[in-house]
């Protein structure tokens, strides 16, 4: 539409220029009769009116086209913004999907690691139980010291083997399968002295998988105390100890992340709550 209007306006402007060259008055004076002059004047009025209307229409068309162009640019910008937003959302979705896949993979790895850890703990516990059973069968009853007091008579009055903070409750879940704590973890400075809680004889002093350097004292009547994850052992198998006798030092052997003493009390192989026996 704009191109055709441009052609028409160009034609009209050339015609107007030619008329301007001749001069309106000259054209009128060349006419031979008043009727011819009147027709010429009417023609001029019609011509210039039509030309003005054409120019006005052309300008309106230009304005409309400018408005359409502005709207088109705005729509293009909006479309570009929407496209960029969609691209950003797609990238965020892909990133979220990748993170979720990584989280799932990490969870699967963690589950496998937990399963492996649980199986290892179960093997370690089984090995400890087998050791205690073999010790129980190998113990030979010998004459006890004259000042010996039965282990059971000291319930609730024995001193903890090391001055430390208790990190768990007896029987609490270990967070792996159905395993529960059969003793107490006592966090203390590495190298702290560990002392026997009662009269007894050392029946095991060696390394055991899962327990590190382990020392076991037999107190008679089926009672035993166990001291695990030591840094060093100060007594050997067969030696007698009294309450308060240094038997080992606190360490982190056997896979602990920080120094601690793992302490158990057992009766005929069954774990007992140390809190009920020590103060």
Order of helices and strands: HHHEEEEEEEEEE
Strand content: 15-25%
What separation lies between the terminal Cα atoms? Answer: 104 Å
Number of domains: 2
Number of strands: 10
- Low-confidence segments, ≥5 residues, pLDDT <50? none
The major sheet is characterized as: 10 strands, antiparallel
Helix content: 40-55%
Question: What shape does the CA trace take?
Answer: rod-shaped
Secondary-structure-derived class: alpha+beta
Discrete helix count: 3
Report the radius of gyration as a whole number of Å.
Answer: 52 Å
Output mean pLDDT.
Answer: 83
Description:
With 279 residues, the chain is α+β, with helices and mostly antiparallel strands. It has two domains: 138 residues, no CATH class; 133 residues, Glucose Permease (Domain IIA), CATH 2.70.70. The protein has three helices and ten strands, in the order αααββββββββββ. Strands 1, 2, 3, 4, 5, 6, 7, 8, 9 and 10 form a ten-stranded antiparallel sheet that branches. Strand 5 and strand 6 form a beta hairpin. Helix 1 packs antiparallel against helix 3. The protein is rod-shaped, with a radius of gyration of 52 Å. The mean pLDDT is 83.
Brief summary of the model shown:
The chain is α+β, with helices and mostly antiparallel strands and 279 residues long. The protein folds into two domains: 1-138, no CATH class; 144-276, Glucose Permease (Domain IIA), CATH 2.70.70.10.
């Amino acid at each position: 539409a704009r191109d055709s209007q441009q052609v028409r306006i160009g034609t009209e402007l050339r015609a107007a220029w030619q008329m301007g060259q001749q001069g309106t008055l000259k054209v009128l004076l060349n006419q031979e009769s008043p009727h011819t002059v009147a027709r010429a004047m009417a023609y001029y009025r019609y011509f210039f009116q039509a030309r003005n209307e054409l120019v006005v229409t052309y300008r309106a068309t230009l304005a409309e086209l400018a408005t359409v162009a502005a709207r088109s640019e705005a729509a293009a910008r909006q479309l570009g913004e929407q496209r960029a937003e969609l691209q950003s959302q797609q990238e965020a979705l892909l990133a979220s999907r990748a993170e979720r896949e990584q989280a799932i993979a990490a969870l699967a790895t963690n589950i496998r690691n937990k399963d492996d850890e649980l199986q290892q703990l179960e093997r370690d516990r089984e090995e400890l139980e087998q050791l205690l059973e073999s010790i129980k069968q190998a113990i030979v009853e010998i004459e006890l010291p004259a000042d010996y007091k039965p282990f059971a008579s000291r319930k609730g009055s024995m001193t903890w083997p090391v001055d430390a903070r208790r990190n768990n409750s007896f029987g609490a879940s270990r967070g792996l399968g159905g395993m529960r704590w059969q003793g107490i973890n006592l966090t203390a400075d590495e190298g702290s002295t560990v002392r026997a809680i009662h009269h007894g004889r050392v029946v095991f002093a060696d390394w055991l998988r899962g327990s590190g350097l382990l020392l076991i004292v037999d107190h008679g009547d089926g009672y035993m105390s166990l001291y695990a994850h030591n840094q060093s052992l100060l007594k050997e198998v067969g030696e007698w100890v009294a309450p308060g006798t240094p038997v080992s030092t606190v360490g982190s052997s056997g896979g602990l992340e920080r120094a601690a003493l793992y302490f158990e009390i057992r009766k005929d192989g069954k774990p007992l709550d140390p809190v009920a026996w020590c103060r």
